[in-house]
Amino acid sequence: MRVLTINLRFENEADGSNNWPYRREMVARVINEFAPHLLGTQEGFRPQSADLASLIPKYHLCDEHRYWDPERMYPCIFYDPEEIAIEESGDFWLSETPHVHGSSSWGSSRPRLATYARCRLVQAEKAFFFCDTHFDNVSAEARKRGALVLIEQLEIINRDKLPLIVVGDFNGPPSSPEHAILTGKKTLDGKKGKLRDAWQVLGYPEEGAETYHAFQGRGVSRIDWILVSSEIEVEEVLILHHTFGGRYPSDHFPVGAVLSL
Fold first, then answer.
1. pLDDT range class, residue 113, cuts 50, 70, 90
2. What is d(CA 215, CA 217) in angstroms, rounded to the nearest whole number?
3. Tens-digit pLDDT profile for residues 154-203
4. Helix (H) or strand (E) holding 26
5. What is the CATH number of the domain that holds 104?
6. Which of 165, 162, 147, 148 is nearest to 228 (CA)?
7. Gap between the terminal Cα atoms of the chain
8. Rounded CA gap, 188 and 11, in Å?
9. Total structural domains in the chain?
10. Cβ–Cβ contacts within 10 Å for residue 17, how many?
């Protein structure tokens, strides 16, 4: 199974030639060439996500559960219906009140959320959960506490303890508290996660693995992760450094992985 995560960079006229209308075809090409079974995107407004959906017609946008705020950016799950069946889906907010729509806490710069889907591999009839999220870029406390909300909510949602994949833009490096909490190296309020960083599972070095690059092509930090539960085998992880005529599809490099259940 192939999964991909990409921060789209929201549509912003101040980006000039890097604004979404000038990059949309590049983003679609990266996705179509990698051909993931599941795709997690971040930072898309609804029109931008719909625009992307039109460019990757093989994929369905998993948003039947969602009430879209026009002024809000959302993480989105896209899936290949020939490979993946969606059995359940939903959103929750990374706040003290995760089921209050649009809620935020701990000094977060804006409401942040996670979106999830209970999936089934069509050919193998194996079920698992896939979650996509985007942590805050300003408040370290919001990122740390958001990691705990993510752990707690996924424990409730994943009542059958199925294999779990979590992807997203976490706005922090692997040395951050939120990474340590999610991967069980650190506790918060007596709780910790049980996920593994796919990049680290394969023993890949952090040097040269930075994913945020601000359209410059020179990475700043590996803040885009693919995390997996212990039942999932990591076969390959790739940071996709595509350029098209010297231009980049986004201000983040996409991250892809080949996984086995």
1. very high
2. 6
3. 999 999 999 999 999 999 999 999 999 999 999 999 999 999 999 999 99
4. helix 20-34
5. 3.60.10.10
6. 165
7. 8
8. 36
9. 1
10. 9
